[in-house]
């Protein structure tokens, strides 16, 4: 791809062997200019093994949270496309290519993976509890937020450098609610968002607790709604031309 691509992988207590394999696949599929691992509270073994992989390391000795790690990584990149993907590799490298494509083709400013897209390939599902909580949260977010999509929380999203320079000023969530905030801020600022089907393979050994994360997301949803409503309705916040929810394109749906 002609565009320079930077990849950020936020990590906390990762499976290093699996992460090593994932990074190799990403490099093979995408040929990114830079891969940054933003890792919280790493062991020396984490640091030593990741340092052998020709990646940049952003190390925090304290638990920053997923959102804070991604934002630090995006701010550090100098590429004109910036992609993040979760360290567990639930979204394979081939699907990351699909997520980047709408931006590389100048069809959108922001591109998000979607497990709920009708043509997504779900190899292994989340547990029944995770799916139930995720469905309830997605419905609540669609009802409350000015930016509507099918899947706010899929762990792979891309953005142009120019769009990030505006979106990043309005993002504050340090934890798992960052995905939700990022999408809602992007739409409220008028950026066109492509929602892209992905292949998904759940990893049940994730460090994410479904119950505590659901509480965190529900609490953050109120704050994100307040902030993004202000962006959507106040001209002084608008960085790009106003659009409405119909500008969020679901790739692969009828009519595309």
Automatic annotation (TrEMBL):
Region of interest (Disordered), ranges: 236-256
EC number(s) on file: 2.4.-.-
Source superkingdom: Archaea
UniProt cross-references to SUPFAM superfamilies, sorted A to Z: Nucleotide-diphospho-sugar transferases
Pfam name, any one: Glycos_transf_2
Ranges where the Glycosyltransferase 2-like domain occurs: 7-122
Gene3D superfamilies referenced in this protein's UniProt entry, alphabetically: Spore Coat Polysaccharide Biosynthesis Protein SpsA, Chain A
GO molecular function list: glycosyltransferase activity
Keywords: Glycosyltransferase, Transferase
UniProt keyword Hydrolase, yes or no: no
Name of the protein described by the UniProt record: Glycosyltransferase
Species in which this protein is naturally found: Haloarchaeobius amylolyticus
Lineage, top ranks: Archaea, Methanobacteriati, Methanobacteriota, Stenosarchaea group, Halobacteria
């Amino acid at each position: 791809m002609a565009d320079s691509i930077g990849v950020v992988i936020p990590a906390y207590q990762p499976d290093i062997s699996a992460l090593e394999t994932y990074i190799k696949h990403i490099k093979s599929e995408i040929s990114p200019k830079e891969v940054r691992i933003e890792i919280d509270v790493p062991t020396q073994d984490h640091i030593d093994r990741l340092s052998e992989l020709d990646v940049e390391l952003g190390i925090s000795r304290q638990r920053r949270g997923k959102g804070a790690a991604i934002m630090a990584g995006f701010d550090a990149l100098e590429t004109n496309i910036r992609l993040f993907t979760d360290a567990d590799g639930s979204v394979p490298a081939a699907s990351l290519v699909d997520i980047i494509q709408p931006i590389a083709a100048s069809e959108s400013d922001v591109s998000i993976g979607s497990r709920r897209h009708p043509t997504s390939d779900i190899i292994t599902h989340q547990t029944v509890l995770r799916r139930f909580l995720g469905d309830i949260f997605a419905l609540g977010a669609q009802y409350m937020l000015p930016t509507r999509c099918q899947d706010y929380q899929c762990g792979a999203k891309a953005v142009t450098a120019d769009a990030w320079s505006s979106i990043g000023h309005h993002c504050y969530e340090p934890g798992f609610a960052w995905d939700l905030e990022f999408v809602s801020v992007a739409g409220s600022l008028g950026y066109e968002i492509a929602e892209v089907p992905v292949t998904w393979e759940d990893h049940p050994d994730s460090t994410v607790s479904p119950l505590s994360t659901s509480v965190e997301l529900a609490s953050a949803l109120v704050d994100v709604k307040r902030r993004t409503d202000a962006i959507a309705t106040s001209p002084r916040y608008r960085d790009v031309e106003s659009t409405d929810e119909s500008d969020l394109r679901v790739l692969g749906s009828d009519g595309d």
